[in-house]
Amino acid sequence: MSTIGRGGVGTIVVYELFCSPSFFVDMAFFSKRTKRSSPDVLLRPRRSRTVQKRPREESSSPSFPAASVVWAWWYAFLWAAFFVAAFFVAFFSPLLRVKEYRIIGTHTVSKEAVENRARLLLEGKFAGLFPRNSLPLVFLRRREILRTLEADFPIFREAKLSIVFPETIELLFGEREQRFLLCSGGPCFRIDERGEAFDSAPPLSSSGESAVSVLLDTSGKAIVRGSRSVSESFAREFPEAASQLREALGIETEKVVETPSRLSNEMRFRTTEGWQLLLSADIPLEKSLLALRLFFSKTLSPEDRSRLDYVDLRTEKKIFYMLKGEEQKDSESTSEQDSEKKSKEEKQTKKKK
Question: Is the full-model pTM beyond 0.90?
Answer without folding.
Answer: no
